[in-house]
Amino acid sequence: MTDAAGLLSRTRALLAAHPPATTDRTDFLKARFDAGLAWVHYPAGLGGVGAPRSLQAVVDAELTAAGAPDNDPRRIGIGLGMAAPTILRYGTDEQKRRFLRPLWVGEEVWCQLFSEPGAGSDLAALATRAVRAEDGGWIVDGQKVWTSSAHLARWAILIARTDPGLPKHLGITYFLCDMTDPGVEVRPLRQITGEAEFNEVFLTGVRIPDAHRLGGIGEGWKVARTTLMNERVSIGGARLPREGGMIGPVARTWRERPEARTHDLHQRLLTLWVEAEVARLTGERLRQQLVAGEPGPEGAGMKLAFARLNQEISGLEVELLGDEGLLYADWTLRRPELVDFTGRDAGFRYLRSKGNSIEGGTSEVLLNIVAERVLGLPVEPRNDKDVAWKDLAR
Ligand SMILES: Cc1cc2nc3c(=O)[nH]c(=O)nc-3n(C[C@H](O)[C@H](O)[C@H](O)COP(=O)(O)OP(=O)(O)OC[C@H]3O[C@@H](n4cnc5c(N)ncnc54)[C@H](O)[C@@H]3O)c2cc1C
In whole angstroms, what is the distance from residue 129 CA to residue 179 CA? Predict the structure, then answer.
């Protein structure tokens, strides 16, 4: 039942029992999850059937052809790409049952409370504190920043310091934080595009039950690494058709604007087209190697390539469009139904792509990861590894 033929017959049975034309969207998505056709590589009972990840395409094609709704993956990208694989890997059975279904269906949006004003690339230096409450739960105080979608989120993946007396990587614990807690305050941050896609988040006396701790006390860094490795794959490794992603619009502009063509622009377009295609096919191969929950550091390479290509391709498109290139008037990303930015004007995409080499780990930091964990080069000197976090100069 977990080969292509088995999945196809399972998909047809789902469509027969819940015809998309007459079934409520959310009901259809719940039925799809329960049929194990949400993410086929997840275990049975959790939206999958333990099939090879590559067979998801068989299910998706059949559902698309039948006009079935999707779960709006761009809107819930942080949940799908980062929270879910981490919960799958480290969650208790109860946590998996409670969180994965509403996450996949899109009823509950997730955000990521990792970065802080003093802890971005050096994330393990974070200062948000979680202390044990009398009832066995936790009380969290601190400030997070650059939190995409916090204004839409029902839940957050959160890392906080539980033992300042230990070296920085050891005293961190990972939590699932209820964004409706009265101690959570979300303030929008306006970015270079003019929009406020992300936020600063102030946590004041936020209560988290111990049942919402993910992984062991003090094991938060290990758990967070799973999230970060999945984040890179999720940012840089989207499944795309040929000429999908940023290269599509620039190729269209090239075809529609013969008057803008020059020899130099032609050369650049061809080079970028080939590089985008190589990145797309490499991503496809990488995705096929992934097992649920735990991608390797190769995702860092994909994310590096994605950031550079997006910036170069969108820059070329702005040049091709000349004076109109940077004009755009649609600053609506904060509206919940418009969190996607790939279909926006060239000028918007050009400015937004500047963030691609920062979000999910800067390109410089990812180069370090590729050097150390893929190529096996010597590690950067670190003099703070064995010092208690409270004694570090900050
Ligand atoms: C669009 C966008 C969305 C984001 N969404 C989220 C989110 O939802 N949740 C969240 O938690 N965070 C989010 N972030 C934050 C992001 O993860 C951080 O901005 C990023 O990790 C860099 O941290 P920093 O901004 O503190 O920069 P810093 O760490 O201060 O880096 C400054 C500069 O120093 C360089 N640098 C730092 N260390 C090294 C090193 N060891 N070797 C070489 N160079 C180095 C960096 O590459 C960079 O150029 C988002 C950021 C952006 C731009």
Answer: 17
pLDDT value, residue 274 = 95
Mean pLDDT computed over 129-144? 98
Candidate from 333, 340, 358 with most ligand 1 atoms within 8 A of CB, to mutate = 358
Q: Is the shortest distance between the CB of 355 and ligand 1 below 6 Å? A: yes
Q: Is the dihedral of CA 317, 321, 323, 324 positive or negative?
A: negative
Question: What pLDDT is attached to residue 292?
Answer: 55
Residue 335 or residue 189, greater confidence = 189
User: Which of 284-293, 360-369, 370-379 has the least mean pLDDT?
Assistant: 284-293
Report helix, strand or coil for 34: helix
Going along 179-335, which residue ranges are E strands? Answer: 184-189, 198-208
Does pTM surpass 0.90?
yes
Tokens 């007459």 correspond to 22
Percentage with pLDDT > 70 across the chain:
93
Take residue 329 and report the two structure tokens written for it: 């008037």
**What pLDDT does 194 receive?**
82
* Counts of helices then strands in the chain (DSSP H, E): 12, 7
Is 324 annotated in the active site? no
User: Nearest Cα to 162, choosing from 136, 139, 133, 129?
Assistant: 129
DSSP 3-state assignment of 161? strand
Of 62, 116, 200, 231, which is the active-site residue? 231
9 lines ligand 1 (CB under 6 A): no
Q: How far apart are CA 111 and CA 151, in angstroms?
A: 9
CA distance linking residue 136 with residue 288, whole number of Å: 42
Q: Which residues touch 372 (CB under 8 Å, ≥6 apart)? A: 378, 379, 380
As a whole number of angstroms, the distance between CA 297 and CA 283 comes to 13
Q: Does ligand 1 lie within 6 Å of residue 362's CB atom? A: yes
Tokens in use for 292?
Answer: 């649920």
In 261-392 the beta strands, taken as DSSP E runs, fall at: none
Looking at residue 338, its amino acid is: L
* Average pLDDT for 234-245: 76
